[in-house]
Design brief:
This protein has about 450 residues and is α/β, with parallel strands linked by helices. The chain folds into two domains: about 230 residues, TIM Barrel, CATH 3.20.20; about 130 residues, no CATH class. The protein is about 20% helix and about 25% strand. The protein contains nine helices and 24 strands. Strands 3-4-7-10-11-12 form a six-stranded parallel β-sheet, covered by helices on one side. Strands 13, 18, 19, 20, 21 and 23 form a six-stranded antiparallel β-sheet that branches. A four-stranded mixed β-sheet has the order 1-2-14-22, with no helix packed on it. A hairpin with a 5-residue loop joins strand 8 and strand 9. The chain is globular. The protein starts with a helix and ends in a 5-residue tail after the last strand. Bound molecules: 2-acetamido-2-deoxy-beta-D-glucopyranose (NAG) (9 copies). The site of one 2-acetamido-2-deoxy-beta-D-glucopyranose has 4 residues, from helix 9. One 2-acetamido-2-deoxy-beta-D-glucopyranose binds next to loops. Belongs to the glycosyl hydrolase 79 family. GO terms for molecular function: beta-glucuronidase activity. Keywords: Hydrolase, Signal. This is Glycoside hydrolase, catalytic domain-containing protein.
């Protein structure tokens, strides 16, 4: 899915869209404001997390992690490898609750390198655990082979004391992290960003760190990174706090870390816990989904009113979703902007990582204000659940099952080529990505 989402991410997600409803019919008009962008999204915004939880981690009576942790997942699994390659470059964040209790094995091998052991008296329900340097080597080889872009979450609780009410005292002891970083640099492993801590902002999960102490720890991280990467041109990003947004905490934290942070990260669980019986209803309820917009607005406001922050690592992807179970909609796309079309030509796309080529002819017409999009060929990707079962683990693309074949290869994602003058038909319970190639809207220009 990489190719398709990337295209969407770069251009259409920047556009403000308006849907006009004609209640008399199932026709909808979608106007794209090509003049104003509302957000920018990295072209490689697709991401995943590899967590630390051992198989003994259970929630709501289910032990769901099995051998999926970065300490024990099978890195030779062909399907896993192929999946990451298919998204290349996939951003992978290494982190999660237990990251703050990880000890990185050092070359001296003085201390034993023990795994996490379940113990309900301990913070987060497990003892401290250790990342063997041999596993760090294997992981980095794997990331190099699959073309992943890696962010590593560091153990900010190291050196701190956690009080009974969850608040913490003391500064981050960065010695162990610095050793890991030096080793990483020596081995030429590329780390895209070093992120400090996991879900400790505001009230935190299990434990919390005050904004002022977090700022001090983040400046310490910057010092360590500058020292370790002194002779290296491409510096990794400094990312924090990887926690829940809390306006006063974030405001103070940002005020105290000018010139330190490259990326502000925050976590949202807007759909609630995995055990929620109403999850399907929530996903299908647009007003529920809109609820999280408020958090993003407040975060944006906090960033706007803080000193010198260039960007926030967040984004919006626009796509057509039909959340109705029986009505099909016909959506007409229009653009109310001047836009530049590329020359009439035969164009060959090269799809990276899908190892295939195809040629399409685009007969483009020029321009402008208030007119329907006139490019003749559009690419459409219609996603539905197999047999209409929303809990199915099999997704259909343009009516065909998306499954790996017997060699464990990820299927290529073939669009439908449709006449751009026709409306897009969005079937019940479906998601549609429509890509109109080769034109530039003013809002999308850098
Ligand atoms: C396009 O439409 C939007 C929404 O109606 C409007 O805000 C914007 O000013 C329009 N732009 C142009 C160039 O007409
Ligand atoms: C669990 O941790 C507590 C507190 O650190 C300790 O006293 C206890 O011995 C541990 N239990 C086991 C089974 O290791
Ligand atoms: C937690 O306990 C400490 C020590 O008892 C106290 O100083 C601190 O204010 C408490 N923090 C919160 C958030 O209640
Ligand atoms: C790392 O890269 C440098 C410069 O390219 C090279 O001299 C060195 O041998 C490499 N080290 C390892 C462990 O690959
Ligand atoms: C699920 O939704 C129903 C009806 O909307 C509501 O009565 C119920 O409390 C919800 N359950 C949960 C666990 O949120
Ligand atoms: C933040 O600043 C940008 C750029 O100046 C502006 O477009 C946006 O409306 C501001 N957001 C908020 C929530 O104030
Ligand atoms: C569609 O929704 C209606 C009203 O909520 C319900 O009565 C009907 O059973 C649903 N149909 C399907 C196919 O889920
Ligand atoms: C599996 O799919 C890939 C990619 O589409 C293809 O190159 C390969 O030949 C297929 N293998 C088999 C056994 O069908
Ligand atoms: C595309 O659709 C328009 C409007 O329905 C029609 O006039 C035109 O002939 C179609 N073009 C092609 C190539 O089928």
């Amino acid at each position: 899915m990489g190719y398709l989402l990337i295209e969407m991410g770069v251009c259409l997600s920047m556009l403000l869209m308006m849907i006009c409803v004609d209640s008399q019919s199932n026709e909808r008009s979608l106007w794209i404001d090509g003049e104003h962008k509302i957000a920018e999204t990295d072209s490689d915004f697709i991401c995943a997390t590899m967590d630390w939880w051992p198989p003994e981690k259970c929630d709501y009576g289910v032990c769901s992690w099995d051998h999926s942790s970065l300490l024990n997942v099978d890195l030779n699994n062909k399907i896993f490898k192929n999946a990451i390659k298919a998204f290349s470059p996939l951003k992978i964040r290494l982190g999660g609750t237990l990251q703050d209790d990880v000890i990185y094995q050092t070359q001296n091998h003085q201390e034993p390198c023990n795994p996490f052991i379940k113990n309900t008296s301990e913070l987060f329900g497990f003892t401290k655990g250790c990342l063997p340097s041999s596993r760090w080597d294997e992981l980095n080889t794997f990331f190099q082979e699959t073309g992943a872009v890696v962010t590593f979450g560091l153990n900010v609780l190291m050196g701190k004391t956690v009080l009974a009410n969850g608040s913490t005292v003391g500064a981050w002891d960065s010695t162990n992290a610095q050793t890991l970083m030096r080793y990483t640099v020596q081995k030429n492993y590329t780390i895209y960003g070093w992120e400090l801590g996991n879900e400790l902002s505001g009230n935190g999960i299990g434990a919390s760190v005050s904004a002022s102490q977090y700022a001090i720890d983040t400046m310490n991280l910057q010092t360590v990174v500058h020292r370790v990467y002194k002779d290296i041109e491409a510096k990794p990003l400094i990312i924090a706090p990887g926690g829940f947004f809390n306006p006063s905490w974030f405001k103070e934290f940002l005020a105290k870390t000018p010139e330190t942070l490259n990326v502000i990260s925050h976590h949202i669980y807007n759909l609630g816990a995995g055990v929620d019986q109403n999850l399907t209803e929530k996903i299908l309820d647009p007003s529920y989904l809109d609820g999280v917009a408020d958090t993003f607005k407040k975060l944006e406001l906090t960033i706007n009113t803080s000193a010198s922050y260039a960007s926030a690592w967040k984004g919006i992807t626009v796509l057509l979703m039909n959340l109705d179970n029986s009505t099909s909609f016909d959506v007409k796309l229009s653009v109310n902007s001047t836009w530049r079309l590329h020359k009439h030509r035969s164009h060959t796309h090269r799809h990276h990582h899908h190892h295939r080529h195809h040629t399409t002819k685009h007969a483009h017409e020029t321009k402008t204000g208030g007119k329907r999009i006139r490019i003749r060929t559009r690419q459409e990707y219609h996603l539905t659940a197999k047999d209409g079962n929303l809990h199915s683990q099999v997704m259909m693309l343009n009516g065909k099952e998306l499954t790996i074949n017997e060699s464990g290869d990820i299927p290529s994602l073939e669009p439908l080529y449709t006449n751009s003058s026709e409306p897009i038909t969005v079937a019940p319970y479906s998601i549609v990505f429509a890509h109109i190639p080769h034109f530039t809207l003013r809002a999308c220009k850098r």
